[in-house]
Specification:
- There is one protein chain.
- By secondary structure, this protein is an alpha/beta fold.
- The protein contains three helices and seven strands, in the order βααβββαβββ.
Length: about 130
Amino acid sequence: MGPVWFTLHLPSAAAVLALAPDMGKLAELDAIGITGVNVFGCYPDGAPAQLEVRSFAPGGGIPEDPVCGSGNGCVAALIRRDAILPALRYVATQGRCMGRDGRVEVQFDPDGAIWLGGHAVTCVEGMLRTA
């Protein structure tokens, strides 16, 4: 799909929220073809969401993405591959460290497809015209 994400599973959602990454070091990954870094960790049972996700791409001008579809897609692929969560669906939160509280709903189809969704707000709208 284009972006190349280095995706890391941390021990907990709290560990993800506590990160203070060195954006200069992360930006250097762009030179070797890595778009950015995703980190994720699980919340304890009974929490409103199962995962906390953070996505960093400072080499592309995005120090931290409040809700990243391609990043969450990579996390979901790792979740499915490694059977990190037993359910066919889960909710991830992202953006809390930026004062946002995004929610991404993820569902795995038996045929192997991964579906990402959630509510969105249109902030900018426009049209492109060809000459």
